[in-house]
């Protein structure tokens, strides 16, 4: 992938490039990768903002396609030097069937790997997730852990199961021979809960708070810490990994990296209040207002309702047994592996990440829709 200093010559493909994270990766590449000649944005649904990117010096090619269709993926990968694979179904609410989650997240990832092999593309960066590790079904805390912290990773939910399987495929593909005789270099990034401009769940909480007269009610103990990372920093990590993968193939190939920055360790709800507070919302209660057993009962009721209503309507509330367990289990990361391996330092401070997210929530700024 050696690029000459004068003429940009690299072709990048970003799958899922119109999603929450994908959009930030696309914009970050255009800002921070001077060697870029063409940027292919591949997504099931193409966003209108892509049009405005087409007027810049880098050729931006929008490709409407489906990662579950091997031939569409192969056509998009053909001639690309680097693939950043962020496409995936993110669903822990029962909105999407387990079959579809598996098809997109696992089969889709396999298609991307095979396309790289077939087309001679050597560098593959995969967006994995903290959920590949945990929280596990036993609700055991993962406190300031790193990539080597022992933890019993046992999943039952289709989303973490699919992400774990996809990550394994990507790591196992490292070192495979690609067309032309060279080898594939892969690695996986594991963001914790991503926040920032375009974060729909944050917006859902904001709207819910507005509906409840500017209040949200504490459901999770403040002592349970939940790892969060700013979307701009996650995007920056992807760009850096993609850039460094060739020079540091022996070190980085087949590796996993948690995504981290200076965002504070807080409970899921207290962290959200860093943004929702300045937007006028209040979190009521210093302790959970409902006892835990009642919340568990409510989640069971939601599960039953979801099942009963399925033939008529999709009922998929934020609260279900899995999301309650996630919110109630400490999962935080403390590592410097990305700094050691490829010189990562967060591009956005906590203050800037917070300010940008607040402005977006208030509808005053921000690139994401
Ligand atoms: N949001 C988070 O907190 C978080 C945390 C850790 C990891 N991740 C991972 O990051 C990646 C991006 O997540 P996100 O939050 O931006 O989700 P998102 O839903 O906003 O983006 C996913 C994108 O993939 C596209 N896509 C879905 N199915 C596709 C298919 N069959 N073919 C082509 N494109 C398809 C969607 O249209 C969407 O644009 C996912 O792989 C997810 O597992 C997300
Ligand atoms: C008890 C509720 C009352 O306030 C709070 C429920 C919060 C949940 C909806 C969220 C708690 C943890 C979130 C997940 C976590 O941040 C990490 C994730 C990994 C990523 O790969 C996808 C998103 C998610 C599963 C994220 C989804 C929302 C939560 C379960």
UniProtKB/TrEMBL annotation:
Cited Pfam families: 3Beta_HSD
Keywords from the UniProt entry: Endoplasmic reticulum, Lipid metabolism, Membrane, NAD, Oxidoreductase, Steroidogenesis, Transmembrane, Transmembrane helix
Reaction catalysis annotation: (24S)-7alpha-dihydroxycholesterol + NAD(+) = (24S)-7alpha,24-dihydroxycholest-4-en-3-one + NADH + H(+); 7alpha-hydroxycholesterol + NAD(+) = 7alpha-hydroxycholest-4-en-3-one + NADH + H(+); (25R)-cholest-5-en-3beta,7alpha,26-triol + NAD(+) = (25R)-7alpha,26-dihydroxycholest-4-en-3-one + NADH + H(+); 7alpha,25-dihydroxycholesterol + NAD(+) = 7alpha,25-dihydroxy-4-cholesten-3-one + NADH + H(+)
Domain named 3-beta hydroxysteroid dehydrogenase/isomerase: residues: 13-283
A single GO molecular function term of this UniProt record: cholest-5-ene-3-beta,7-alpha-diol 3-beta-dehydrogenase activity
Listed SUPFAM superfamilies: NAD(P)-binding Rossmann-fold domains (SSF51735)
Biological pathway: Lipid metabolism; steroid biosynthesis; Steroid biosynthesis
Membrane topology qualifier: Multi-pass membrane protein
GO cellular component terms listed in the entry, alphabetical order: endoplasmic reticulum membrane
UniProt subcellular location: Endoplasmic reticulum membrane
UniProt keyword annotation of Cell inner membrane present: no
Gene Ontology terms: biological process: steroid biosynthetic process
UniProt cross-references to InterPro entries, sorted A to Z: 3Beta_OHSteriod_DH/Estase (IPR002225), NAD(P)-bd_dom_sf (IPR036291), NAD(P)_dehydrat-like (IPR050425)
Enzyme Commission number: 1.1.1.181
Family: Belongs to the 3-beta-HSD family.
Protein name: 3 beta-hydroxysteroid dehydrogenase type 7
């Amino acid at each position: 992938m050696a690029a000459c200093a004068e003429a940009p010559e690299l072709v990048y493909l970003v799958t899922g490039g119109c999603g929450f994270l994908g959009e930030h990766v696309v914009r970050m590449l255009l800002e921070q990768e001077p060697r870029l000649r063409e940027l292919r944005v591949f997504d099931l649904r193409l966003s209108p903002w892509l049009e405005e990117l087409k007027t810049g010096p880098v050729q931006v090619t929008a490709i409407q396609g489906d990662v579950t269709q091997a031939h569409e993926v192969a056509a998009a990968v053909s001639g690309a030097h680097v693939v950043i694979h962020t496409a995936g179904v993110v669903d822990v609410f029962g909105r999407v069937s387990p079959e579809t989650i598996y098809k997109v997240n696992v089969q889709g990832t396999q298609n991307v790997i095979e396309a790289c092999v077939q087309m001679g593309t050597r560098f593959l960066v995969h967006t994995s997730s903290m959920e590949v590790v945990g929280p596990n079904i036993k609700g055991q805390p993962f406190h300031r852990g790193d990539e080597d912290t022992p933890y019993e990773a046992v999943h039952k939910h289709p989303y973490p199961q699919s992400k774990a399987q996809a990550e394994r495929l990507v790591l196992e593909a490292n070192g495979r021979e690609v067309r032309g005789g060279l080898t594939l270099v892969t690695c996986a990034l594991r963001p914790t809960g991503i926040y920032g401009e375009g974060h729909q769940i944050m917006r859902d909480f904001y709207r819910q708070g507005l509906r409840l007269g500017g209040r949200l009610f504490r459901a999770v103990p403040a002592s349970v810490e939940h790892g969060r990372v700013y979307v701009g920093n996650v995007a920056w990590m992807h760009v850096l990994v993609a850039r460094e993968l060739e020079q540091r193939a022996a070190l980085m190939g087949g590796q996993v990296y948690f995504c981290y920055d200076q965002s504070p360790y807080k409970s899921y709800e207290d962290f959200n209040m860093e943004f929702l507070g300045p937007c006028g919302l209040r979190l009521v209660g210093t302790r959970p207002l409902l006892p835990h057993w009642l919340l568990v009962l409510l989640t069971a009721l939601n599960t039953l309702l979801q099942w009963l209503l399925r033939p008529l309507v999709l009922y998929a509330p934020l609260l279900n047994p899995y999301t309650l367990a996630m919110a109630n289990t400490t999962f935080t990361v403390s590592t410097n592996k990305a700094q050691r391996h490829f010189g990562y330092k967060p591009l956005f401070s906590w203050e800037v990440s917070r300010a940008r997210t607040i402005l977006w929530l208030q509808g005053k700024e921000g690139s994401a829709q």
